[in-house]
Specification:
This protein is α+β, with helices and mostly antiparallel strands. It has 6 helices and 10 strands, in the order αβαβββββββααααββ. The structure holds zinc ion (ZN). The site of zinc ion has 7 residues, from loops.
């Protein structure tokens, strides 16, 4: 599932490729992906230009001239920029025809992704549930202490909760906990101030590094591949066999229904 760094990479790449392009037509091939009525979706978007590219948590926000297109990739959503000679895939569900002859295609094997339009001033309803962005000053020691102090759940589970901090998913949660040497099952309210400070610091460091890595990989793609948001990051524990620090065998457990990887030696407590 794309997490914050992947979403940011997709946005940055799209910005380079389609900024100020105008939508001249839209085809919706699988309707449930678009939550706004098809008529309104087309009427409000055709003739509009992609002006700015923003992110909130894992949501992509395309600010047009008069309206904002919100997109969530969920499990497998991808964007491709292709010219019309490129054959349509059966997983292409929404096609935006652009004024330079190219097409922005939304491709989604699992069809879980969603799009909708919001008026520019509106706060999108889902955003109200979202916690602070990891890079925002609101993601502070005081905030985390207060939030975590009330949670008796495993810290891994709390890290995945988008109302604590927006944008972190299963991969980065494992990596962050390894970086701060905290066991994924430790109760959130039992973290020390020092550990919380480290959690904030390492969250930012790891996400920043991943965004940078994503950018590098995406730039090396050939144009026909477009934007997938996949990238390579030197993962330390997630899906790994052996701890890079102590060579102990990485353990896999389930926390809150999600596969969780950690080093039993480095993350004892
Ligand atoms: Zn280890």
């Amino acid at each position: 599932m794309p997490e914050l760094p992947e979403v940011q990479t997709v946005l940055d790449t799209l910005e380079k490729k389609i900024k100020d392009r105008e939508i001249i037509d839209i085809k919706i091939l699988y309707k449930p992906i678009v939550e706004t009525s098809e008529r309104t979706f087309k009427r409000k978007l055709i003739g509009q230009h992609f002006r700015s590219f923003k992110r909130r948590g894992k949501y992509l926000l395309f600010e047009m001239d008069d309206i904002t297109l919100v997109s969530h990739l969920r499990m497998e959503g991808k964007y491709f920029i292709l010219d019309d000679s490129y054959p349509l895939s059966k997983h292409d569900h929404v096609i935006f025809y652009l004024d330079d002859g190219s097409q922005l295609r939304y491709n989604d094997v699992r069809k879980f992704g969603r799009m909708e339009l919001i008026e520019k001033e509106d706060d999108y309803r889902c955003f109200k549930e979202l916690g602070p962005e990891p890079f925002a000053k609101e993601f502070s020691l005081a905030y985390c202490k207060q939030y975590l102090g009330k949670k008796k759940l495993p810290i891994k589970q709390v890290l995945l909760d988008q109302s604590f901090v927006a944008g972190i998913g299963n991969i980065y949660a494992d990596e962050i906990l390894f970086a701060i040497r905290v066991n994924p099952l430790r109760r959130a309210d039992k973290l020390s101030d020092e550990e919380i400070e480290n959690l904030i610091k390492e969250t930012r460091r790891i996400l920043k590094k991943a965004i940078k890595a994503g950018g590098t990989t995406i730039r090396s793609y050939t144009s026909s591949l477009g934007v997938t948001g996949r990238f390579q990051l030197s993962l330390k524990v997630h899906t790994m066999e052996e701890c890079p620090e102590c060579k102990e065998k990485i353990r896999k457990i389930t926390v809150g229904g999600r596969g969780t990887y950690y080093c039993p030696k480095c993350q004892k407590k």
